[in-house]
Amino acid sequence: MVSRVIPVDPFDLVIFGGTGDLARRKILPGLFRRFCAGQMPKDARIIGAARADMDAAGYRALIAEAIAEFGGGRTCEDGTLDGFLERLHYVPIDARGEKGWADLAGLMRDDVVRAYYFSVGPSLFGDLAQRLNAHGMTDEASRIVVEKPFGRDLASAKALNKDLATYFDESQIYRIDHYLGKETVQNLMAVRFGNMLFEPLWNSQYVDHIQITVAETVGVGGRGEYYDKSGAMRDMVQNHLMQLLCLIAMEPPSKFDPDAVRDEKLKVIRALDAVEPHHIVRGQYEAGDEGPGYREEAGDPRSRTESYIAMKVGISNWRWAGTPFYLRTGKRLKARSSEITVVFKELNHSIFGEQQDHRNVLSIRLQPNEGITLGVTIKEPGPGGMRLVDVPLDMTFADALGEDGADQTDAYERLIMDVIRGNQTLFMRGDEVEAAWAWTDPIIDGWDARGDVPKTYDSGSEGPVDAVQMLARDTRVWRKVAP
Ligand code: NAD
Fold first, then answer.
1. Which among 121, 289, 304, 400 would be 20 to 30 A from 147, CA to CA?
2. Whose CA is nearest to atom 6 of ligand 1?
3. How is domain 180-407+430-472 classified at the CATH fold level?
4. What does pTM read for this prediction?
């Protein structure tokens, strides 16, 4: 199978924070891969803008190093790197002062797509938006891309939205959640809405429950102090797990169009039940072979921030009332694994007598080994009567699609190309983000008010035992956290 590369229009992409960690690890190596794939037009330019004083040659050297380190080992033809580096420019700039703005304005071209990537802390979003406007660098076709975290509660998210809305229309604002750029996440929509098989069963009448797991093996490491101000709820659930939940639970949009999709996601968030305290388990990892304990890494021996969370979430609408969604995410767990599992109900009646507890389970793996598996019940081969066995119908993309399946485009590169194309489908709208915080805030406020202390769990385990008990009370079990 040959993957189709659809070229994009010529562009000037300015990366504020172009020397930072995210730019070096994800954005520039991703753009390089798009260049290698032949997707970048000849007159596309990428302009790094950051605090450090350097010239274009210095910036090209910095990015060449970053591509060598973080490029994922993908090789392009000889000489391709030079071709890519030639497109890079650099302007030293101060987001809060006047330095660099006139130079940047002088560099921008009028007749190409202008995109501004805010790869800086959110405290600078308003300054950047204001200066872009003051220097006449935007028109109605310009776009801005903003990184997470988009606020730390409803009030701060509203303030950010208001700041950006002063200078940009919602149609120009691309709020990144890189989970939405993952191949499998988009495949989730293809599977649901591109097949006759699943959608008729996709409701509380046929689905027993749904699990969403995002497990990491790494701890907070050197980011401990920073992470301690947010925790798993703000860092993962409010955004990434919430987005996955929306795509699983939403009604079919009338068409695959940015606002149609986002309208449906928003309705899901607004239908989420408030979560009872006994339906949440928070955890902190202890020291182990893998490294120091959470509190040590956070630099606060009394930290109450969670590095793990598991919760039972209900959705009050016709489709889902009565079907729980179990979400969990954590650091320093047994394996790195992200998966959505739809567990269907048992048959109403089994003609095979005793063997009733066979259920269909659909698993959608985000990482590793992106793919979809459907567990189906068949007859165990061989003589001796009718014995049933569950077998997986496995569609690991790498196996099913050959090289293209394995060579998954990174989420960032896909999303940046969508920005250039002007397609907002995989970006969060302002009202979605606010609704997600409106649901999250009372949960976090409740912990603060009660002085809730997270449970401890062993590094390299599957998380706190309380999370297992939470499901056991519902006579259910978590899927194994396995690579
Ligand atoms: P970083 O600290 O490594 O880099 C910050 C960049 O911003 C640098 O290029 C710096 O020069 C620039 N900068 C800072 N103050 C400036 C100013 N006053 N004027 C002009 N430039 C200024 O940060 P990072 O890790 O690259 O993160 C950038 C943003 O992306 C943050 O909002 C972060 O939360 C978010 N993010 C980062 C990651 C990641 O993996 N690093 C992942 C998701 C989201």
1. 304
2. 17
3. Dihydrodipicolinate Reductase; domain 2 (3.30.360)
4. 0.94
